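TA notes, week 10

Several of you asked for a full example with nothing omitted. So below is the full record: structure tokens for the whole chain, then the designed sequence directly under it. When grading your own attempts, check the secondary structure regions first.
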């Protein structure tokens, strides 16, 4: 069965399209479809008074592309874009494309109506779409950089005019004879700030915001995310199935030798959090220009270093870890808990080593918050050790475990927190007096210089070097207000509603786990802590404690002591991790 939206072939019994998710049951019968306006044009048919259709090129989202030749001009062929009807979408596209001028943006020269359908006609865009081009293999790193620079020039013009493209993908980009790209499809373009009544996604290329995640507000950075995904496909010839992994939105680091600088730009563009991406098309274009310059300077290597492949370095890194928990000056019991494990295994003479650091903060008061934190720590430890031992370096003994270290460790942590959630919830269901018990938790699994974080609630994780990077986002009322721009972080820190949590382990049968990834450079720290620590410090104060390379043990002592001096009306628990400054090896990926 053909999908009416994207023309993808689906099994006869399918209810929804495998490619775009459209409802197939709404497809009209052939007899009705022939009578409706907007039917596909047949080869040899005439469009209006001036064009003869040669062939249908693409169909998707209700918009069809045709190759045609004009009857009264010297052009060999033209591109015809057909819309479902001669309505607002058709008018909008004409307005948009005629108001912009850039060599990368396709521009129609004629528009007409034919049998109830609207058409735009313009120059033939090139040889084939980027999607078709990539069927022959990936592009070289320098080609990818040039492709990105050209497209970003077009996006600059689009964004400056107040528009978002909204559907960047290899299908929307055509390649000319000299490898020059042309953006052809704009059917999902809309004005910046225009309310989004429904989310429309391009599988594998749409940003998390297009799925309603990360606040659900599309802006320029959403287009940059999609372009990053396009460049990722161009470099690897792979299309990411992000929809199946919407809880992570992780892109595995491409294992492409000699492409390191370009990879860094791509990975920043596809960060899940919009604030961690490039701010503008111009900023990303300059970064690609610098990356291309670095490609010319760096010697080509036949072997892949850990920086290029994303694999942890073979030499284990001996992180320094210190932990501390204090009941505080007000609470009757300490409902916080921490866990620190050094995991090591060797199978068939292949060693595997990692560090696990966890902080949990019990909630529920008399409803056994301390028990919830204890159950969570134990359930998590059991799951991680079990999953960890299914892996060896470079070889998975379980077919269900991803090969990429970031994906693998993210999946291990996600399953561990989900197991902890089920354990608490099932325990609470045994007695009505336990209803409401739960805990917040932040866990980090370190393998070489790669740190993968899993998070639920308002415990926090920071990466700290010359700057302070708050990795996690609070699942609290004030945290949401900060994310939406209604509160500053300083206002949220002082808010009387800062303890109102909307997501925790154990309060529901299922839980959504946030996952993050960072590289830890030599001399950098990780701080994982409960709200009894972070709420007593501004970002500037907290960063100041870590300057001058202090020992993790002394940092724990000083941070807790300062909380006590400031009143410590909650339990205070933290773990400080430091990568030794002389550990060398792998460089940090810029975020």
């Amino acid at each position: 069965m053909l999908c009416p939206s994207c023309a993808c072939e689906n099994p006869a019994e399918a209810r929804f399209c495998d490619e775009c998710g459209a409802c197939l049951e709404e497809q009209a019968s052939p007899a009705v479809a022939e009578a409706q306006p907007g039917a596909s044009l047949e080869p040899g048919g005439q469009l209006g008074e001036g064009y003869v259709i040669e062939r249908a090129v693409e169909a998707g989202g209700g918009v069809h592309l045709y190759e045609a030749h004009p009857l009264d001009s010297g052009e060999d062929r033209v591109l015809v874009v057909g819309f479902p009807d001669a309505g607002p979408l058709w008018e909008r596209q004409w307005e948009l494309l005629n108001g912009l001028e850039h060599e990368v943006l396709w521009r129609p020269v004629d528009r007409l109506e034919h049998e109830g359908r609207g058409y735009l006609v313009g120059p033939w865009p090139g040889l084939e779409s980027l999607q078709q081009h990539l069927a022959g293999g990936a592009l070289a790193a320098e080609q990818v950089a040039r492709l990105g620079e050209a497209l970003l020039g077009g996006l600059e013009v689009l964004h400056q005019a107040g528009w978002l493209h909204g559907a960047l993908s290899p299908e929307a980009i055509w390649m000319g004879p000299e490898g020059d790209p042309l953006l052809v499809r704009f059917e999902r373009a809309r004005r910046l700030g225009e309310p989004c009544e429904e989310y429309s996604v391009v599988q594998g290329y749409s940003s998390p915001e297009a799925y309603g995640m990360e606040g659900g507000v599309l802006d320029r950075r959403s287009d940059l995310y999609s372009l990053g995904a396009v460049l990722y496909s161009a470099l690897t010839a792979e299309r990411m199935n992000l929809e199946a992994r919407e809880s992570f939105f992780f892109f595995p680091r491409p294992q492409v030798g000699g492409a390191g600088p370009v990879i860094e730009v791509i990975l920043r563009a596809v960060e899940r959090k919009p604030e961690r991406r490039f701010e503008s098309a111009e900023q990303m274009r300059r970064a690609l220009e610098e990356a291309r310059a670095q490609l010319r300077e760096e010697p080509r290597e036949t072997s892949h270093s850990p920086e290029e492949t994303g694999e942890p370095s073979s030499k284990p890194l001996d992180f320094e870890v210190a932990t501390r928990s204090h009941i505080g000056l007000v609470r009757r019991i300490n409902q916080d808990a921490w866990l620190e494990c050094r995991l090591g295994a060797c199978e068939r003479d292949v060693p595997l080593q990692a560090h696990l650091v966890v902080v949990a903060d019990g909630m529920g008061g008399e409803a056994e918050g301390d028990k919830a934190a204890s159950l969570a720590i134990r359930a998590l430890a059991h799951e991680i050790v079990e999953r960890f031992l299914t892996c060896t370096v470079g070889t998975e003994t379980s077919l269900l475990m991803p090969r990429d270290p970031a994906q693998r460790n993210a999946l291990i942590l996600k399953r561990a927190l989900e197991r902890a959630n089920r354990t608490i919830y099932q325990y609470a269901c045994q007695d009505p007096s336990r209803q409401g018990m739960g805990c917040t938790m932040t866990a980090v699994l370190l393998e070489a210089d790669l740190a993968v974080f899993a998070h639920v609630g308002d415990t926090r994780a920071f990466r700290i070097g010359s700057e302070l990077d708050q990795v996690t986002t609070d699942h609290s009322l004030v945290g949401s207000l900060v994310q939406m721009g209604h509160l500053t972080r300083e206002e949220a820190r002082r808010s009387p509603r800062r303890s109102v949590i909307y997501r925790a382990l154990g309060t529901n049968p299922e839980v959504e786990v946030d996952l993050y990834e960072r590289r830890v450079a030599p001399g950098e720290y990780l701080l994982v802590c409960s709200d009894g620590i972070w709420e007593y410090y501004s970002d500037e104060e907290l960063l100041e404690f870590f300057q001058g390379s202090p020992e993790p043990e002394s940092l724990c002592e000083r941070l807790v002591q300062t909380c006590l001096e400031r009143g410590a009306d909650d339990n205070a628990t933290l773990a400080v991790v430091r990568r030794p400054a002389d550990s060398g090896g792998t460089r940090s990926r810029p975020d």
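The CA atoms of residues 468 and 541 lie 10 Å apart. Use that as a sanity check on your answer.
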